Amino acid sequence: MKITLDMSISQLLEEFDREFGLSLSIYRGATKSDDISLYEIADIRKDLDSFIIVDKDTSVETLESMFRQNFGIKVLVKDKDGNTLNQNRTLSGSRVLIDDDDVQKTEEDITIKKTSKIKQKKEKNDTTNKKNTPQKGYYLKPDLQKHSVEDKIKEIDRYYLIFQRSERYKPMINLISCIEEAYLLYPHSSEIINHIEDIKLKSVNVSNLSIRKRRFAVLLLIILTSIFSIIGIGVWGYDFYKSIQRERLVDSIVKEIDNLRLQKGALVESGSLAEANAIDENINSKSIQLNNLKNTKGHIIVYYSILLAFIMLVILFIFLNRLNRYNVTSYRFYKNN
What we know:
Elements: E1 2-4, H1 9-20, E2 23-26, H2 38-41, E3 51-53, H3 60-71, E4 75-78, H4 100-132, H5 149-166, H6 169-185, H7 190-270, H8 273-295, H9 301-330
């Protein structure tokens, strides 16, 4: 059977009923009469010359998809009683055969769905049981390093050699922590206690020597800071004194220039031009001297010396802080501590 868009709805229904003994339910243009053609209810984007061909072996699903794709019309195939046919059936009424592979796939899908449902139920039951049961706390024990007395003595000696070579704060802290750990691990071992006392005596000597060096460095910093401070303050004071003198000299020169100008005016009025020219030369020399005094500046060394003194002062405070920390920590090497 060939179905085209120029067929009327009534013609389509009559031929379909005569050919297959079935009816079609058309879901576009239902409010219009059956005398209109399929083109009037089809999708406007479809071609007028499009058509479909169906026979008794065509399945219901294929027929409905062909109407939807070629015409843009939704149809349902029904029997004479008005019941919608199954999608797997053909227009002749027989069921479409399914391949064995499809049957296996459907069975596998069914089993997967069943197992997933069972897992979901188990997970829900587990979550509810976890909420109802009180939770226990589990604590991991720390891994303890097992040392022998000889190993611990070697470790103490290694930290002592590092401290002896560097004489710095961090190796001293590492040595002290290693000694305190040995006290905790072997409190009744006379061998390790005697060795620790010997190391502490040696460490006291090393720390005292390092403290002397650090104090000497602090003393040098104090001397350098004081030297730069004295230079800066001294030069600044000298420049300040010179600036006061320059101001006084400038005032006296300005007064002399004013007096010379008055004298020049009187000589010019009296007609003695030679003396007026001499006074004019004197005024010019005085004005040059005045400009030189005004353009003189202070020594640049003042700013550099004050800047160096400030930098040395900051370094001095850092050294004093580290010396104090080093000195306080070194007291832990003494027997009473």
